[in-house]
DNA sequence: CGGGATCCAGAACGATACTG
DNA sequence: CAGTATCGTTCTGGATCCCG
């Protein structure tokens, strides 16, 4: 077979949405999971539900502000749910929704690709960056 | 089966990279394809090689600046190659590299998920946004 | 035609301090 | 514990003009 386009990546899908960021499903999803912390948070929630401070512990580099914001984004899109236990002090648990679980396989596919091909990408970058700028001596 | 984590999404993959954006494969890949135009450009190149102006025609919303920048990024990462034909005026063709082709299936998986679940996400957002802010009357 | 250079607005993000 | 509020910085992307 020569030059087949994988299903789901056809150009017409984007064109149907008219490139409008509000209407384009791909841009909406990429804007969410392409941000700095969502994919990582998703993966942390994939194993099991986690409390806020637990997430913060296992993702040390994230600030509370960004963790909150990331979780709100997931909650807003219906990918995760938030459960408050009125203990003292309060504890809040986040868990993936059924919808949220369905994104794990496709996301995992991309993650696997990244892990597998990153060495080659790094080499490509090194080569590219070492190239003399056009006209350079 | 209860609560299995899909392969390739395990938390330890991130932890192994120490969350360092420079070293983390997932962040590197997501930073690239998560940007505003890369996924769309990739999809445009999936069908067949395209010339610069051709890409610009079929993705009208992108500026020349961003199209150039996006293509440079793909080239740098070894996902696409650039071929200059010294005609007059010059014409430049871009095409996916073998490595670039391998990203299409996983990316396509995510695109398909986006297309399929965007309606539900929109409903979730509408519900979330309609919720009274905590403490609102 | 296929860019590069410059400028600028807005968004994303980090650090810090405060709160129920 | 689980946030919110505020501030400052950095990064992204759009507009415009110029060039071979």
TrEMBL record, chains A, B:
Pfam families linked: HxlR
Molecular-function annotations in GO: DNA binding
Domain of life: Bacteria
InterPro entries membership: HTH_HxlR (IPR002577), WH-like_DNA-bd_sf (IPR036388), WH_DNA-bd_sf (IPR036390)
Keyword annotations from UniProtKB, A to Z: DNA-binding, Transcription, Transcription regulation
Annotated ranges, domain HTH hxlR-type: 24-122
PROSITE patterns: HTH_HXLR
Transmembrane region(s): none
Name by which UniProt lists this protein: Transcriptional regulator
Organism: Telmatospirillum siberiense
Lineage: Bacteria, Pseudomonadati, Pseudomonadota, Alphaproteobacteria, Rhodospirillales
